[in-house]
Amino acid sequence: MQYRELSTPVLTVDLDALERNLGRVADLCRRQGVGLRPHTKTHKSVEVSRLQLAQGAVGLTVAKVGEAEVMADAGFDDILVAFPIMGAEKLRRLATIARARRLLVSLDSESAAQQLSLAAAAQNVTIGVLVEFDAGGRRCGLDPGPDLVVLAKAIEKLPGLKFRGLMSYFGNVWGTPEQRRAEAEHVAELVTRALAAFRAEQMPVEIVSGGSTPSAEFAHLIPGLTEIRPGTYAYNDLNTYYQGACSFEDCAVRVVATVVSTAVPGRAIIDAGSKTLTSDLLGSGPKSGYGYIVEAPDVPIIKLNEEHGYLDITQTQHRFHVGDVVTVIPNHVCVTVNMHDEIVTLRQGEAVGCWKVAARGKVR
Questions:
Q1: What is the residue extent of each domain of the chain?
Q2: How many C-beta atoms lie closer than 10 Å to residue 265's C-beta?
Q3: What CATH class has 17-234?
Q4: What is the 3-state secondary structure (H, E, C) of 195-212?
Q5: pLDDT tens for each residue of 156-189
Q6: Is the pLDDT of residue 198 over 90?
Q7: Across the strands, what pairs with 268?
Q8: Predicted structure pTM score
Q9: Looking at domain 3-10+245-356, which of 2.40.50.150, 3.30.1330.60, 3.30.460.10, 2.40.37.20 is its CATH number?
Q10: Positive or negative, the Cα torsion across 78, 79, 80, 86?
């Protein structure tokens, strides 16, 4: 069946593009001498995780306990939960995972470490801990200095925990290639400062985990970095494209939609709204619109209701008709994927399979 024959709206992934993306970043990491621990938040699927590990990934990254459970249940090992987990029920589940899988957890407070220790000790397991520091994103993480060492030493004294290293998120590495390189050089200074604090105390740091998709190509600029955690690179999206970090051909995921109305002058309506495409606006490029229509690049998606996508057709020569099928590259693929139960796999436009988005909605 060709993709145009699928019931819409439907999420699709071009396998050739996906495989190119995975191979390119795996090769990039090998050339730069850093490990690849991809974040599963983008694809949330067992199948893509398996492909990433086959390409040489050193482990996987997740954000929530539910995501860790999905990946652990699939048989994957060496999972980093890159989020400060709080709450007795979630911590108990984390400790249960650690009974059968190698587990790392990031945190930035002694309070979080104490709660994690109680859960680990209760099940007689050891959980590795990465102390998170702020590399400029101002989201989570301690200042990259002596406070990191203080927390690391406190962790070493807690039962069931082992300090393994440091973690940061380079979300501030964003923009044009020139802007991203400049910010990566600033991040390098902060990472160097963080590691210097540990050298001053003669305390070894086994892992230094950082990165993102936009910063991946600059990993070699950051001394001491041992692994990166890109996620979006597997599928890519408009944000990645407008930063010059991928081409349109590298945007492996498309939402296939159908034109359902042209009754209002100057408008065409597709059956993909905010519950399909996400209402996230672009953070790069034009910073407007809700996706890129491959068949009509000059037609913006100007508004979304839950089930309706509004196309402004006043400035195009393209003629839309009810029943036309279009393909949309989403602004933010991670959120888009999380709204779909499944993703149809394509080869040369032919539907060849279907993958479950197994970690969809795993927010706890």
A1: 3-10+245-356, 17-234
A2: 7
A3: alpha beta
A4: HHHHHHCCCCCCEEEECC
A5: 999 999 999 999 999 999 999 999 999 999 999 9
A6: yes
A7: 311
A8: 0.96
A9: 2.40.37.20
A10: negative
